[in-house]
Design brief:
Layout (H helix, E strand, L loop, with lengths): L5 H23 L3 E6 L7 H16 L3 E6 L3 H12 L4 E5 L6 E3 L14 E4 L2 H8 L3 E5 L1 E3 L5 E3 L2 H11 L4 E6 L14 E3 H7 L3 H11 L5 E5 L5 H7 L6 E4 L1 H14 L12
Parallel strand pairs: 1-2, 1-9, 2-6, 3-6, 9-11, 10-12
Antiparallel strand pairs: 4-5, 7-8, 11-12
Helix pairs in contact: 2-3, 5-7, 6-7
């Protein structure tokens, strides 16, 4: 018997992966996803490069993406990286066109988390969407006195996702997801469970986004290469999925029903 051709086996595996991704591509075509990249640095080169590549790929297959990134000069690097991979990214700040307005300027940047967003005008984002661009937004806003001031990035990402009624808000952090008080990763939560058990203001912002019309929130590990593709186009979720209360209940009951008689881990099911 002839040994299997490794190249042929690899080709079949690649074809299978593409075929398995097709239902997700079909379901999410034209849908809006907001990506909150929490890291201020590029971090591991491989993860940074695949992040730019995967954003380009997801945009090219028809997802409408907005990336919120706090990195300053790295915003321009990310725009360039996406474009090198065939995407059409454009860098923005919330001060461009006055699309992010705040109630008052903070005294210093360290008070950015206390800045309240007064108004979002998504017209600028829609204009870029209409021309096939992927906006990369730096979280700055305009105060009533005309000053440009920093805003907490998690607030900006959640507010943009809520105004656009995004299908998903994906939060990329230096952790594998949300954890309980013993450090164990939580696979699936409802908005109410987040509000009851997560004291961090950034986590509470995620629950508010769900209550404002965002379809789902994913908290994933930014250090993991290909994490975006795995989270969006496969069943291989390794982060925390947060759902609106009613949806979370239906998903939990469905998972319990489907897992009866199975020795697998229910929380890992699709």
């Amino acid at each position: 018997m002839n040994a299997a051709n490794p190249a042929s086996a690899l080709g079949k595996q690649q074809a299978r992966v593409l075929a398995e991704a097709l239902p997700y591509i079909h379901a999410y075509h034209g849908k809006t996803f907001v990506i909150d990249y929490v890291r201020r640095s590029a971090g591991h080169p491989e993860a940074w490069n695949t992040f730019g590549r995967d954003l380009a790929l997801l945009s090219l297959v028809g997802l409408r993406l907005v990336v919120v990134h706090r990195g300053g000069v790295l915003n321009a690097e990310l725009v360039s990286l996406i474009n090198r991979h065939g995407g059409r990214a454009v860098g923005l700040t919330g001060a461009d066109g006055g699309f992010l307005q705040v109630r008052a300027a903070p005294l210093t940047e360290q008070y950015a988390s206390a800045v309240e967003i007064a108004r979002i005008d998504p017209a600028l984002l829609h204009m870029h969407f209409a021309h096939g661009f992927l906006p990369v937004v730096r979280p700055l806003g305009t105060a009533p006195d005309g000053r440009v001031c920093p805003i907490e990035g998690s607030h900006v990402a959640a507010a943009i996702a809520a105004h656009l009624k995004a299908a998903k808000l994906i939060v990329m952090r230096d952790s594998a997801g949300l954890t309980d008080n013993r450090g164990k990763r939580l696979h699936r939560l409802s908005a109410s469970e987040v509000e009851a058990s997560m004291p961090d203001a950034a986590d509470l912002t995620l629950a508010r986004a769900l209550r404002s019309g965002v379809g789902a929130v994913h908290v994933v590990d930014a250090r993991r290469p290909e994490v975006l593709l795995l989270e969006i186009l496969t069943c291989d979720s390794r982060g925390t999925l947060i759902l609106p209360d009613g949806v979370a209940g239906v998903v939990a009951r469905s998972a319990q029903y489907l897992s009866r008689g199975s020795k697998g881990n229910e929380s890992e099911s699709c």
